[in-house]
Amino acid sequence: MIENSEMNFSELIEKTEKEPEENLPQLAKEVKNSPNKYFPILLASFDENSSLMTPILGNLFRKYLKELIPDFLIPILEDASSPSRFVWASTFASEINLEAADKFLVKALSNSKTQIVLAAVKALALRKSSEAVRGLKDFFLSTNDEVQLSAAIRYLLPLSEQFGAEFILNFPKYPIVRQIWILKFLSETKLKEALPIYTKAIKEEPEILGIFAIAGLGSLGDENSVKALAEVVKHKEWFLRKRAVDALGQCRLSSAIPPLIRALSDSTIQIRTAAIESLSKIGHFDLDCLIKEIVTDDHYQKIGLIKVFGQIKNEKLVDPLIKTLLDRSTLFFSLDAIGDLGNVKAVPHLIPFLKDIEWFNRLNALEALGKIKPQNLKEIAQPCLEDPNDMVRNSAHRILGNHGNHNFSQ
Q1: How far apart, in whole angstroms, are the C-alpha atoms of residue 11 and residue 389?
Q2: CATH fourth-level superfamily of 317-410
Q3: Could you tell me how far CA 283 lies from the centroid of its own chain?
Q4: How far apart are CA 72 and CA 36, in angstroms?
Q5: What digits encode the pLDDT tens for the residues 59-69?
Q6: pTM summary value
Q7: CA 129 to CA 324: how far, in whole Å?
């Protein structure tokens, strides 16, 4: 049977949920007088409506019951049976820097519930005490739960200085499965001291550790990384070359451009596509190099650079791209890239292709003009309504319609 005092306390909680500021002092007074009696009721109310009770409990203990915080939080952390309670208690403990919570948070790292484990990882990472760091390090080097490891990395990054040196020093001693996770962690830290580990891993275990080591080189993004990645671009395994090309795109250095240009001629289409994407990101660091290299007899390299020019959208690239219109073997790509570049300077060079013998060149030229949108687009596109190819005519209808002229002849 519920006692009147407990019923009154439950009613007081409900009032506090509606008007917290007015009722918190009275709630605090009741809890302070009989904490063991009212703690369970507070937790039961939290279980019923955590979104409302979370700020109430925080303010209750911060403002009025600081001395009772350990008595309230520690049993929740020690029990660790309710994920919702534990997540709240661990977060609160880390926010108020409750040292007494550390040993229970460390113990929770071996809990069977992932939600509790990650809450403990997050709280300990914020605490940064010696006990917290030691517990987290042991957890990262021992747990085999991939979900927990993957999620834990983002919480552990602020501790990279504490972890990084030891991980790098003892890297050869760890089993290869653990080395993978250490490489994943190090690749997020951008610690330059990890460079020798990356290069050694690629050399000795390219197909197992190489992927993660390449990611680390890309995150460093310095000249030494570019040099190492340029060597990987020559590797016999295409998936490693692909990763290296992607990583070079992260290196915001002009020295990464030449190996990416070479990758445009790779025998694998996935790598050529990746090289185009990476050059589109960093090609602006050395436009002169791109302009020089587009004058080439290598078909794939020229196509790749044409596409890159269209994506970079720099006025300096307009004239070199216009010159590529003379090569009919790459004309299809040049017309498209000029449209993407979007510079009106190219308009006079596109107009002649509206009468090209090949319908797809006429179509691409018209589409490019539609992207550039010169002031006289209506006059330029109008004759295309009479084109013998239905796709060209349809394109002209659409472009003129978008241009605001809906009263054209069929």
Answers
A1: 79
A2: Leucine-rich Repeat Variant (1.25.10.10)
A3: 21
A4: 9
A5: 999 999 999 99
A6: 0.82
A7: 63
